[in-house]
RNA sequence: GGCCCUGUCGUCUAACGGUCAGGACACCGGUCUUUCAAGCCGGCAGCACGGGUUCGACUCCCGUCAGGGCCGCCA
């Protein structure tokens, strides 16, 4: 039997961290078993469901590289089928019409709660004879269709994460299937859809663990084989509070990570390690490794805290995620990284088409050189600006430290002249020219080196100077050196 | 309140009765260097608490405490 898993988010407009991890785990599991990954949007709550809301989810998944094999299906498309299933249950006597009003139910619930118990059903409706029930329905009395949980029900299933689960009828209330207007409710819809889509493994958040008992009963009532279940622990905010967009803002939405310069692979890797570990000490895992090593039974049962500091720009998200992005930035094969950098530079208005054509090699060398100390794609357009544009800023601190020597007024043009003569334009030649001039001038090489760094980039720090100059190119270096003279003190 | 789940460094985690309780991030030192990172080396830091069971418990059992989930004619 081939594995079929589905990710079934509600259309909330954006992909939540928790949802993203659920989707990732579903995807890893499906890929590992060469199965099918299905995307289904749970849009039966008509009020809240718009296509824009769905689009946000799709964008998040696409960015993460979690491609689905079937769908997106809309749960609302199956409404007639859901209703049909409910009616068949009613027909078979496994469900009944519940005529209690919401107000009555609320009172019943309160009374039950006061007694320390749990509300399970409306006694009046549940014990109504078929004839009586038909009569009230014919009269036009509104009713909800409810599944009758057998009094001797004992529901068991083995969860891949939480282990054996068991519950008896006294802890399971009768399941609302259809509203008075005939529209289906969640528990019914998921089960019917999961059956018709032949889902073999249900991987979802732990908040659905309790629903599972009801759903198992529905599978049985509908005569369908049970899928396997794996409930994932939740991802909490610092302080173990519930993580929500409302309370915590953009950190919870995956598009934020895209906007803030994350490489999708890095984020995927970080997410994978929230609740799961390969068993050995590896942290950086390629997608292939993750697919190979992933194991539902190895998932941690405890909720994970997503650790970030609100209001701290340095730690706007979990520091491990930040670190991981840096690792991916420096280790991703350069050809794979280039498109991401291109996107970033385009967004910043710094892109030059030549870098995709005749200048590609130099562009790649530049990126490869500066990425060593970057942690985000955004750094290429920020700190990396001098490498891609003539319009770059001079940091006051850098000028103060490296362009303070008045004699540089003469030395910088001299240096430019020497460098123009360097041929071929390679590391050794450039280094020789600079060190040679320093010696002739009787100054420490560091003086010229640091002055050249600031003159050519406006910055105090950066890659090794000789590599830096090579990558910038002879002409650019010479002109920047000469232009920088204006920054010197008199 | 009821039912259920969970509890190893600040955070993510490994351990499946016998380990000096391991790794990673963060943090703090050192090293390297023309600068800053990275890298490398080192350090700090944890079995929630109390009882059992056992020759021996982070591992098993019970209780306490703490945190979380669910308790809709939402999904």
Quickly give the CATH architecture of one domain. Answer: Orthogonal Bundle
Q: Could you tell me the strand content as a percent range?
A: 5-15%
Per DSSP, the total helix count is 23
Question: What are the low-pLDDT stretches, counting only 5+ consecutive residues below 50?
Answer: none
**Cα-atom Rg, whole angstroms?**
32 Å
Mean pLDDT: 92
Q: Could you say what the CATH topology of one domain is called? A: Arc Repressor Mutant, subunit A
Q: How many beta-strand runs?
A: 13
Question: What is the CATH level 1 assignment of one domain?
Answer: Mainly Alpha
How would a textbook summarize the main sheet? 3 strands, parallel
SSE-based structural type: mainly alpha
Question: What does this 3D model show about the protein?
Answer:
It is built from 23 helices and 13 strands. The strands form five sheets. The protein has a three-stranded parallel β-sheet. α1 (about 15-30) crosses α12 (about 285-295) and α15 runs antiparallel to α22 (about 465-470). The relative contact order is 0.08. The mean pLDDT is about 90. With about 500 residues, it is mainly alpha-helical. Among the domains are: about 335-385; about 395-485, Arc Repressor Mutant, subunit A. The structure holds one RNA strand of 75 nucleotides.
């Amino acid at each position: 039997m081939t594995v079929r898993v589905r990710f079934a988010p509600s259309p909330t407009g954006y992909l939540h961290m928790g949802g993203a991890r659920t989707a990732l785990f579903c995807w890893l599991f499906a890929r590992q078993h060469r199965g099918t990954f299905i995307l289904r949007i749970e849009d039966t709550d008509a009020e809240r469901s718009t296509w824009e809301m769905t689009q946000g989810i799709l964008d998040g998944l696409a960015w993460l590289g979690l491609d689905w094999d079937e769908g997106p299906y809309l749960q609302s498309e199956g409404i007639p089928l859901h209703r049909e299933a409910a009616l068949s249950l009613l027909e078979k006597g496994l469900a009944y019409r519940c005529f209690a009003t919401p107000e009555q139910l609320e009172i019943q619930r309160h009374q039950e709660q006061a007694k320390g118990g749990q509300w399970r059903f409306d006694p009046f409706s549940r014990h109504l004879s078929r004839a009586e029930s038909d009569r009230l329905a014919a009269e036009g009395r509104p009713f909800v269709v409810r599944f009758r949980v057998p009094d001797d029900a004992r529901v068991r299933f083995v969860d891949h994460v939480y282990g054996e689960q068991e519950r008896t009828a006294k802890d399971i209330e009768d399941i609302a299937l259809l509203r008075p207007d005939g529209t289906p409710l969640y528990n019914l819809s998921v089960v019917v859809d999961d059956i018709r889509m032949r889902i073999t493994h249900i991987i979802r958040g732990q908040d659905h663990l309790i629903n599972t008992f009801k759903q198992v009963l529905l599978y049985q009532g509908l005569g369908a084989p049970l899928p396997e279940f794996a409930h994932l622990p939740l991802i909490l905010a610092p302080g173990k509070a519930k993580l929500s967009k409302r309370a915590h803002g953009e950190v919870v939405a995956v598009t934020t990570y895209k906007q803030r310069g994350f490489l999708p692979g890095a984020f995927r890797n970080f997410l994978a390690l929230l609740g799961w570990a390969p068993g050995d000490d590896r942290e950086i895992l390629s997608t292939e490794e993750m697919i190979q090593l992933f194991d539902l039974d190895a998932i941690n049962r405890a909720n994970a805290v997503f650790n970030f500091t609100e209001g701290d720009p340095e730690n706007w998200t979990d520091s491990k995620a930040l670190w991981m992005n840096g690792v991916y930035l420096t280790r991703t094969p350069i050809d794979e990284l280039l498109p991401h950098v291109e996107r970033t530079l385009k967004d910043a208005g710094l892109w030059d088409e030549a870098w995709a054509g005749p200048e590609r090699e130099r562009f790649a060398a530049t990126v490869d050189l500066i990425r060593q100390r970057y942690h985000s794609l955004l750094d290429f357009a920020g700190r990396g600006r001098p490498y891609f544009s003539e319009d770059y800023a001079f940091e006051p601190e850098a000028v103060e430290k490296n362009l303070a020597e008045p004699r540089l007024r003469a030395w910088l043009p001299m240096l430019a002249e020497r460098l123009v003569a360097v041929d071929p334009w390679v590391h050794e030649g450039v280094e020789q020219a600079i060190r040679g001039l320093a010696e002739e001038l009787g100054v420490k090489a560091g003086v010229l080196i640091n002055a050249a760094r600031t003159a050519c980039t406006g910055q105090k720090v950066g890659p090794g100077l000789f590599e830096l100059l090579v990558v910038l190119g002879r002409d650019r270096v010479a002109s920047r050196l000469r232009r920088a003279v204006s920054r010197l003190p008199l």
